[in-house]
Design goal:
single chain, alpha/beta, TIM Barrel, 16% strand, Ala_racemase/Decarboxylase_C, pyridoxal phosphate, Diaminopimelate decarboxylase, PLP-binding_barrel
Length: 154
C-alpha cells in the first residue's frame, strides 16, 4: 500500500516525491531516509482543517522525537505547526530551523540547568515541568531574571 506521492515508476522503482529511490540509493548510499514533504504538509493541513471544521480551538504540536532536522522545522513553521522538544539539541535545531520560540514546548524528564537557561534565554513558549527538582531549578533561574515563564505540569 503506497501513500502520499509514493508510486511505482516505469522502471518499477519506488518513487517518492518524484524521486526514484533506486537512483537516490545509488547516489547517497543506504540506509537512506526519504521524507515526502508533500505528504507531511498534507497531514499537517488535514489535522488543522479537521479540528477547525469541528469548531475546536486547537494547536497542533509536532513531536520532535519522531524526526528532528532543520528542514522539518522549516516545513512546520510554514504550515503554522508548533513543536515539542525534549533536549537542548532538539531545541537548538528547532530554533535554527526557524521555529518561533513561542511555538516550542520543552518537555523532558531530566532537563539540565544549562538546557533550562538556554530555553529561558530564547523565551521558549512553554516549559513542561516533570518533577519537583525542575520546579526548584526553574524558580532559582527565574529569580535572577526579570522574566516570567509559561509552564505546564506533567
Amino acid at each position: 500500500m503506497l501513500f502520499g506521492t509514493a508510486k511505482m515508476n516505469r522502471e518499477n522503482h519506488l518513487e517518492i516525491g518524484g524521486c526514484d529511490t533506486v537512483k537516490l540509493a545509488q547516489k547517497f548510499g543506504t540506509p537512506l531516509f526519504v521524507y515526502d514533504v508533500a505528504h507531511i504538509r498534507a497531514q499537517a493541513r488535514g489535522f488543522k482543517q479537521t479540528l477547525n471544521q469541528l469548531g475546536i480551538k486547537n494547536k497542533v504540536v509536532y513531536a520532535s522525537k519522531a524526526f528532528s532536522c532543520l528542514a522539518i522545522y522549516q516545513v512546520l513553521k510554514e504550515e503554522d505547526i508548533a513543536c515539542d522538544v525534549v533536549s537542548g539539541g532538539e531545541l537548538f535545531t528547532a530554533l535554527k530551523g526557524g521555529m518561533e520560540p513561542a511555538e516550542i514546548e520543552f518537555h523532558g524528564n531530566n532537563k539540565t540547568p544549562e538546557e533550562l537557561r538556554y530555553a529561558l534565554d530564547n523565551k521558549i513558549g512553554t516549559i513542561v515541568i516533570d518533577n519537583f527538582y525542575e520546579i526548584d531549578l526553574l524558580e532559582e533561574l527565574l529569580a535572577t531574571r526579570n522574566q516570567t515563564q509559561k509552564v505546564l505540569f506533567r
